[in-house]
Amino acid sequence: MSLSIGQVAERTGLSVHALRFYEREGLFVNPVRRGPSGRRIYSEDDVDWLTVCIILRASGMPLPVLSRYADLVREGAGTEEERLTLMREHQARVTTQIGRLTESLDLIRFKVAVYEDLVDQGAAAHQCHAPSPAAGEEGTPLLRQEAVVE
Amino acid sequence: MSLSIGQVAERTGLSVHALRFYEREGLFVNPVRRGPSGRRIYSEDDVDWLTVCIILRASGMPLPVLSRYADLVREGAGTEEERLTLMREHQARVTTQIGRLTESLDLIRFKVAVYEDLVDQGAAAHQCHAPSPAAGEEGTPLLRQEAVVE
DNA sequence: CTAGAATCTAGACCCGGCTCTAGATCAACC
DNA sequence: GGTTGATCTAGAGCCGGGTCTAGATTCTAG
After folding, report:
1. Which has the closest alpha carbon to A19: A38, A47, A44, A58?
2. Interface of B with A in 24-53 (CB under 8 A)
3. Chain D nucleotides near the protein (CB, 7 A)
4. Which domain holds residue A9?
5. pLDDT tens for residues B89-114?
């Protein structure tokens, strides 16, 4: 089954511009076929490959690495070790990135909790017409609540 | 305790360029103080705030959002609801991002496993001088192994 | 007093990753 | 046989997030 660039764009969610750009960047394993009038003709395999590319991109693989990977796949047998290395390196990057995000999430959750408390207190104070008696030590609350969580 | 821009750069890991850039972008809660000769003087609070900024940046908060957050903190009491909203939105973004990365990791792990098998097979074949008898159906292995994992 | 390091401002530059434009060609429908 | 829409190429433009440069202070040590 052969597809036009517009159809591939629709199926993959990439723009036609991005598809041509990816081609220039060498991300395709096989050179994209052309019709008699020079128009691009994509196969289902191309779409499958693009799907993989999209996932790898979404996990932060840079275009040059993706291009290198495409090169290796194109070369075929004998490049498996390097592909393995490349994938393992990417796996490590993604894993550490998830770790970083998860750590950041700790701070973010803490901030959310702090502001939830403050907003609740504010609402309560507004209800009982008293200036937040349970607030405890105020001091410089707007600075203190910005303190690092560590 | 007051710090020079170089000292802050050293403590935070940001470059002096980045520090001045962040200031222009309005990321500081308080305008950075200046010495008599016009040089920047940072406080420990500035460093603490920067530490928070670095974590939020690491989790993908764009500079304009960070700047908006700094604005709200500067304005002080009465902006807690908006700060809560902002933080919750960021929390949601980070959570979905972790989800995306974790999904991607599935594919990456799968690829790693496939290449590990291939490399092992290749090594075994090399040892016993037989062309990988356990490989089963070969067909178009270099294409099939690139198939989407879903 | 002077050399070298740090800082200042304003603005140019870079990089990654697209996105958009212009002008031409081609396909399809009425 | 026009008109409309999709596609083509080459190249410019954009956005985010810094980075770097130039030229002028200013600080610090010997």
Report:
1. A47
2. 29, 45, 48-49, 51-52
3. 6-9, 11, 16-21, 25-27
4. 2-76
5. 999 999 999 999 999 999 999 999 99
